[in-house]
């Protein structure tokens, strides 16, 4: 009987969330088995011996045990698959949400920081303007005080000039008469006295004119000083308004800076929480990926051992045919014919008549930031589409995996010198049974979206000598 290899130790098959480009272990499920055909091939026997001797087929039920009830087993599997799929979808969504929340918080924090820095700059500028405005206000107030003092002094000077001019006018009025000269003459003054009196009169008139001129000049100066006072008052009023504006701006900006600082602190806290959540999810993803790599390595080691066994069996089979040919040639008295290698049924055919939606190759993980292998070729296949065997072979295993969903393995033996195994993933249900021999093109299952899958399709894989290769190399 061909053993079931991928299950390994059920206790080590933890729940793994991954996309459909990788295979992972999942919560263990009891796999249905059917009794193998009575006749066992040499290849199957060798695989069984190698697997048992390597100790990698732990917890495999006895081949002689009765198979479980299909209906009950299907119901159990459907329930477990549904729960596992929900858990995987939720975990994956949570990872995406955590990363998105962190990116959003980081972007918002950057905006808040810029806003906070701008507010700080505006506050510094406002404070500097406030200092300038205060200085201007102080100068304007001093200028106004000086101008007012000048006006008051001018007004006092006007009062004094006006009094002097009044006295001069009164004196002139009293002396400005034609009787002055007559008085001098009547007093019998000599001509010299008369001349002296006339000079005195002229001096009195000169004094009157000077007093009036000084009064006019003082009034003009007072008017100029009052104009300066008006200008100083206007300048001081503008300085007061400017100072009031800067004080108001400084007060408002101080409040804004405090609010921006508080917002920045709050956003920083949100960012920290989001970062920790994203980091936890990332670490979980990393741990799960490490488990995936370990599982893939384990499966490949089993398939490598199987490939060696199949090649050894093929070599023994060829040696047996060569021996038979030599014996036959001896009896017939002719040289023995050359026995070619068993071609193994030719190459592989497409498992579904459709187009490729995602090819085999390396992909960059957007969260973990490293390259990983998309280890198969994705074909468009609506749910329920029949999936056909790519070549004749024997069904070696079928089971559910958290990443690949329902999987079915078909060993095709040695083809063109290489041991070939094909794997069909995300099936909605199986048609072929474990241990059953299937022909090329025979329906072995139906397309689905089980496991971690975004939609119905077939993830088709090819193992060559136990290692994953590009399926298109063989199709």
UniProtKB/TrEMBL annotation:
- Necessary cofactors: Zn(2+)
List each coiled-coil range. 215-242
Which ranges are annotated Polar residues under compositional bias?
A: 22-31
Instruction: Please name the GO terms that the record assigns under molecular function.
Output: metal ion binding; metalloendopeptidase activity
Q: What SUPFAM superfamilies does the annotation carry? A: Duplicated hybrid motif
Stretches assigned to the M23ase beta-sheet core domain: 373-471
In what ranges is there compositional bias, type Basic and acidic residues? 10-21, 321-335
Entry keyword Chaperone: no
Q: Name one GO biological process term.
A: proteolysis
Task: Give the record's keywords alphabetically.
Answer: Coiled coil, Hydrolase, Metal-binding, Metalloprotease, Protease, Zinc
What ranges does the record give for the region Disordered, renumbered to this chain? 1-37, 314-346
Spell out the protein name for this chain.
Answer: M23 family metallopeptidase
According to its UniProt entry, this protein's organism is Kribbella pittospori
